[in-house]
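Ticket opened by: R.M.
Priority: normal
Category: complex prediction / small molecule

The reporter submitted a protein together with adenosine-5'-diphosphate and asked that the result be attached to this ticket for the collaborator who will pick it up next week. Submitted input follows.
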Amino acid sequence: MDELSSAVIDFSERNTNGRIIAEYIWLGGNLIDIRSKCMTLPEEIDLDNLPDWNFDGSSTNQASGHDSEVILKPKAVFPDPFRLGSHILVWCETYYPNGEPTDSNFREIAAEIFKKCTSEKTWFGIEQEYILYRKEISWPLGFPVSGYPKPQGPYYCGVGSDVIVGRQVMDAHLRACLHCGLKISGTNAEVMPGQWEFQIGPCEGIESGDEMWVARYLLLRCAELFGVCICWDPKPVMSNDWNGSGCHTNYSTLKMRSDGGYGVVKNHIEKLGQAHSRYIILTGVDNEKRLSGRCETSDLKTFTFGVADRGASIRIPRVTEANQKGYIEDRRPASNMDPYVITSAIADITLLESAH
Ligand code: ADP
Ligand code: MN
Ligand code: MN
Ligand code: MN
Ligand code: MN
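Result attached by the on-call engineer:
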């Protein structure tokens, strides 16, 4: 997209005459494409009963042209960190007119799974890795326009202009998440130049997917302000000299966190191992390019686990072993995974399947 020059007048101070702006946000039909449009509403509107809406699904790969309406159902409301005031962001689910969720809407099935295991108090902490990239050439920020930067090593948690690029984007995003009240637990610069990470969690059950998708939306919006793009690809630079991007998913249940929980930890890891081959196909498009067994990843085909092992499918943190209770880290999911799919699959595999 061509950039505009900045506006001379700041219109955000204008009177909205008793109206608020509600930005309705949803996931489009291509599994990672977030969409949004806004409507204005009276200030007195009840935020727990926002109206359903609809959009042209034939433009988002969610419907055909002759039956194009897809319904938006509000699921979570946040203060808008860009427009400020009383303006809001509205995270929505998408439905076909017959009441069925659309093909890319996995929230409903996830919510059903979490409803069945509410008492287990499933917690998720998701580490979203991404790269900033130049829109003109689809090449990472921090990489020379043609060619490669010096090898990986100084970039992870790096400081200084020779190793860091895009800190302003990361910081704007962190502030935006905090403004929305998201459970963002931290951020860091990653192993590849131009690569960053933020963590959302711990969140309980369906809240994890809701917060992750809104956090992704906020990142796209923040990057817009700086004229850069976000790349969610698991392996943006196709060589093992360069790390891919993952979405490590940290997981615990009430029993895992309670005294004596280590037995439950081991039991759940065993179940995840048994489900490996059918789970792995849910972990993101092109994840097989990332899970090479190198660059701090496990091999796609083999399930492994180990204490403090960053080359394993599942890492047991040292603190979990030391306390004999706590959480585990599933290192398999890719940066472009759907958090509704991954969190509910983990809950289903570890808590529900044996009860079928
Ligand atoms: P790493 O050491 O793998 O880089 P991070 O610090 O980036 O780990 O992310 C760890 C994530 O796990 C954070 O989002 C954190 O909130 C989350 N977390 C911490 N404790 C738990 C727990 N008991 N259950 C689930 N997630 C947890
Ligand atoms: Mn129109
Ligand atoms: Mn991390
Ligand atoms: Mn990381
Ligand atoms: Mn991790």
